[in-house]
Write a structure and sequence with these properties.
The chain has 446 residues and is α+β, with helices and mostly antiparallel strands. The chain contains 15 helices and 19 strands. Strands 12, 13, 14, 15, 16, 17, 18 and 19 form an eight-stranded antiparallel β-sheet that branches. The protein has a five-stranded antiparallel β-sheet with strand order 5-6-10-8-9. The protein has a four-stranded mixed β-sheet with strand order 1-2-4-3. The chain is globular. The chain starts with a helix and ends in a 12-residue tail after the last helix. This is FAD-linked oxidase.
Length: 446
Amino acid sequence: MNELTSALAAALPGGRVLTDPDVVDSYARDRTFVPPGRPLGVVLADSRDDVVATLRWASEHRVPVVPRGAGTGLAGGATAVDGCVVLSLARMTAIRELSPQDEIAVVEPGVITADLDRAAREHGLMYAPDPSSYEISTIGGNLATNAGGLRCVKYGVTRDSALGLEVVLADGRVLNTGRRTMKGVTGYDLTGLFVGSEGTLGVITAATVRLRRAPREVSTVAAEFTSLRDAAAAVSAIVAAGCQPSMLELMDRTTLQAIDDWKNIGLEPSTKAMLIAQAEGPADEMAALCGAASFVAVSSTPEEAAELIGIRRLAYQAKERLGQCLVEDVCVPRSVLPDMITTIEEAAARHGVMIATVAHAGDGNVHPVFVFDRGLAEPPEEVWAAADEVFRAALDLGGTLTGEHGVGLLKKRWLGLETGPVAAELHQGIKQVFDPLNLLNPGKAI
């Protein structure tokens, strides 16, 4: 340890600070290809007090702090910077309270998303946000990026389930935001401000989240299409008909082929896209609206439904088998989803780039995954050119650069196209209020 990290170790209980270079390196990056900086060390926080002590030390010594959950982020938001301390919250795994009467839970940031959902279901409830990484991602990371998931189409993103937060500010002060009631309009919405701030305004050490009644009956539809645009058109038809699906997911041929090569799902040669829809109740109307499909199946048992959803959850891991991935995350109005899908296909062909696309189609959130050769330090120029075309098209269609993954490092070069100079000035002003020394996750998100 050097003098700085020795002082940090002295401020914390034994064993909290790691400085071995090989161990520190394993905490320095998320799931992106972005090369990390060199941290001074890693703090393994067990409690809010550990976070307070770390941030007080960082403020005193002017050391940057990069908060980290499970490292499942896809935008470079948890990537270490030179000379920082990585603050890992993965050990803070307590569900402090679960109240069936009030339909809320109070949880620490290291709680795995699926574990909270399972705990809620023991009481006939559920935690609605469910990113595809829900078995490994943490509540803290979900809050930091305002993560979405497969059930977003009905229940919204993480912010829609966040009622209140316990946050440690950059100077070590503790702030409690929000409430534990279903309604509350006192003061500014600081809870909403922190959710999605990517660790740049404070470190979340607990959250009061909303739980919902788990559905008693769920039906799942799987429809195969010979055209990706036809599948996107079916999404628009389902939404326009007012079916209110709880899940509406789309996968293109490249994604399905990757899954089939890995798990042998029996993919037909003519299938260019698959739509997986779920309803809390009968799904016959949604099945009927997939009129252009070459094949439609409706689950008859919970096991069949789980199997169909399981295919969708395999998508990202299957694509990682193809090469390095630039995973992107644009969101457009649902009415123009077919146009966005067409743009992605055209960009892939024009630039000679493999793009595997999945979508939380019910809310217009499209994930084009740009696959490139392993071993490259970053995507080649043709990948960036195709990505640029996709991002600009999303904005032209009235959409946004990111629906759930966040800005991190990967989207910063395009951020100004969406926010504009006035919003950028306000963002910087908010950052100055909460983190005047620019110590929290510097260089990210804004």
